[in-house]
Write a structure and sequence with these properties.
Blueprint lengths: L2 E3 L5 E2 L16 E2 L4 E7 L12 E10 L5 E9 L7 H6 L1 E4 L2 E11 L14 E5 L4 H12 L3 E6 L13 H10 L3 E6 L5 H15 L4 E4 L13 H28 L3 E8 L10 H21 L4 E8 L6 H6 L11 H12 L9 E3 H8 L31
């Protein structure tokens, strides 16, 4: 008989048997509040589930009578909170070093890839998540309990020249016990950008955070080929705008939301060879403060994280092979700063924060706080040219 299983605790798939089909394409950590129970198996107290904190210690899929995939969750309760302590003593098993009592198997009918009925507590979409700062940010947010949609072009089936794929990142997050899904996307295609947001909500049920991190760079100043200029603007500026437009209704539906746009020091001072990139980034910062004004009444915070310290991401290292990267910061440092901004209240909005300034002011991001502060206003005057360290590509 159908019923309701409710718990205030976030429950974790502690173990997924290798011998059974895995329900891991979309979920490895779930919060099963008010999930409909279609059938009970092996329930030692028919029709009754104890009011106790619960853990999912086994989760897998099997066909339903209609042929749709279903989730089978092996539910256990912690001894001492169980209403049937004699069962705890006689049927205990060990999970994460603590004794738990096996209570029942539940059949939860949740169609594969349609987990909106599974109310994840918080969901983040991170672009450019196949490597570098995006991948590190996805991992940090997953460790904080977000279900993360990782979006980028590079997959194992379609890799790019720079190392790193969505599949690699998703696998690492899942291996660490987090929830992640891959959302392949060409951010130069407006329709794909909008579909990226919709796909995230389709897979994970909601959206709370958007991190516009992805960017492309081509070397060139006034002589840059216009097709490359257009591509930089499409990926670095248009894609964040379209993603935000598509995300806002979902952020409103969540009750509040947060958007972080990742910028660069190139937004504030001319870097030889990066004219189009710098133009896109300064426009992205302008977009940030305008969206913050527009969305403040919806409790949607919009902020900019400006990377003004050298970060040894795969893309930066590939673009500057002749430069010594040994003293550069790891991508994880920037990810820590982005996560810090996302953890602030929603009235923390419209902020254009530089990485070094955040590190100095709040004591975060490790060694970044020992670096000199950079300007926070746009350069005014004639900048002395210096040889570009970027390569074309």
């Amino acid at each position: 008989m159908a019923g309701e299983f409710t718990t205030s605790d976030t429950t974790t798939a502690q173990h997924i048997p290798e011998s059974r089909p895995k329900f891991v394409e979309t979920i490895s950590r779930v919060r099963p509040d008010k999930i409909t129970v279609w059938e009970r198996r092996r329930t030692r107290e028919p029709g009754v589930l104890p009011a106790a904190p619960a853990s999912i210690v086994d989760i897998f899929t099997e066909p339903s009578p209609q042929g749709d995939p279903t989730v089978v969750a092996h539910i256990a309760v912690t001894p001492g909170t169980c209403t049937m302590p004699e069962l705890c003593r006689s049927q205990a098993c060990d999970v994460d070093g603590g004794q738990v009592a096996v209570m029942s198997y539940l059949i939860l009918r949740i169609p594969f890839f349609k987990v909106g009925s599974m109310s994840f507590e918080k969901v983040a979409l991170v672009t450019g998540a196949s490597r570098g700062v995006g991948a590190a940010t996805a991992s940090v947010l997953a460790a904080q309990g977000y279900a993360v949609a990782c979006a980028a072009r590079a997959t194992r089936e379609s890799p790019q020249r720079t190392p790193g794929t969505l599949d690699d990142v998703v696998d690492r997050i899942r291996a660490a016990g987090g929830t992640a899904v891959a959302v392949p996307v060409d951010l130069a295609d407006r329709e794909q950008v909008a579909a990226m947001v919709d796909r995230t909500v389709e897979l994970l049920g909601r959206l709370d955070v958007l991190v516009n991190n992805a960017a492309v760079t081509f070397v060139g100043d006034l002589d840059i080929p216009l097709r490359r200029h257009d591509l930089v603007m499409a990926v670095d500026l248009d894609a964040p705008l379209i993603a935000a437009r598509q995300a806002v209704p979902h952020l409103r539906a969540a009750g509040e939301g947060r958007i972080v746009n990742v910028s660069s020091l190139a937004a504030l001072k001319p870097v030889p060879g990066l004219m189009s990139y710098g133009m896109a980034k300064v426009a992205l910062e302008r977009l940030t403060v305008d969206l913050a004004r527009q969305l403040a009444g919806d409790r949607i915070a919009v902020n900019c994280f400006r990377i003004d310290a050298p970060v040894a991401s795969e893309g930066s290292v590939a673009n500057m092979p002749s430069v010594d990267h040994s003293e550069w910061e790891p991508s994880e440092a920037a990810a820590e700063g982005i996560a810090w901004m996302l953890a602030q209240p929603t009235d923390y909005s419209g902020r254009l924060e530089s990485m070094t300034h955040l590190a100095h002011e709040h004591g975060i991001m490790g060694g970044v706080g020992t670096r000199p502060l950079t300007p926070t206003t746009m350069f005014n005057g004639v900048f002395d040219d210096y040889e570009s360290v970027f390569i074309d590509g």
